[in-house]
Automatic annotation (TrEMBL):
Lineage, broadest ranks: Bacteria, Bacillati, Bacillota, Bacilli, Lactobacillales
Domain of life of the native organism: Bacteria
Stated name of the protein: DUF2634 domain-containing protein
Length: 128
């Protein structure tokens, strides 16, 4: 199985802050699909208004990690048949914006667990 260099939602290469190494993923397509799913706000797509993570719920739960993880896990489970788990690794706040970084685990085609780095940026502009 080939390994790919992980990228974030902006296409930047992800470097592990603890080791300085590139973060690698087994399935770049799964990482891209995860970032698209997390980065799309529910109702954002006029042709598929039910698709997307409710970013307002993410904002409301930034201080309640268990609830936020449960919200994200419920959403990803509804989108991906091979979803196993999601773990919040970091939340970066910058004014009205927050970036939630995750380790998301899926089952690959051989039934082995593989973890991809994913994340979403949310803001509360227009919500108050």
């Amino acid at each position: 199985m080939s390994m790919d260099i992980a990228t974030d939602e902006t296409g930047d290469v992800i470097i592990d802050p603890e080791t300085g190494d590139f973060v690698m993923v087994d399935d770049a397509d799964q990482a891209v699909a995860t970032n698209i799913a997390l980065g799309t706000n529910e109702g954002e797509l006029s042709w598929n208004p039910d698709f997307g993570l409710n970013h307002l719920h993410v904002i409301e739960n930034l201080d309640d990690i268990p609830s936020l993880e449960a919200e994200i896990e419920d959403y990803l489970e509804s989108q991906f048949d091979n979803f196993v788990s999601a773990e919040i690794k970091d939340i970066k706040r910058n004014g009205r914006t927050a970036t939630v970084d995750l380790a998301v685990t899926y089952l690959d085609d051989s039934g082995e667990e593989t973890t991809v780095t994913a994340g979403t940026e949310v803001d509360n502009i227009g919500t108050d």
